[in-house]
Write the structure tokens for this entry.
Amino acid sequence: MDTESDAGFKLGNYTSFDFYEVEASGEALEPYATQLDFLKQEISQQLQQRGLTRNTTNPDLKINLGIVVSEEVQTRETNILTDPPYYMGQRRYTWKSRDVEVGRYQKGTLSLHLVDHAANELVWEGAAGGVVPSDNTSKLQKRIRQG
């Protein structure tokens, strides 16, 4: 996780928070809608433990969440000892190293921006990324809690 804060930023200087509306697009984000709610709940809990309250009308701090999920391809390089040569025709064979797809996975990145609502200025930002477990909701929620 990478974080950066404005000079002089202290969370204790704020008493309330709320979230910006999330604008999601694409079918790929639909499976993560419930996880987004869980993410907001977890962030709210962490801020409330630090003395802030949620205020939807006029918060001191606004939270902007950005989520990017992309499909990645995992490959391996062929090996002359374990992979057969290619047939070239006329009883000719050749061998060359190449990448072979062995799997696909989803990589996700979450960015979190804290914005001073009165000044409309970014005061803190953080980003975290990793492999998104597509078939295990509890594992994803555990990673969200740790983050």
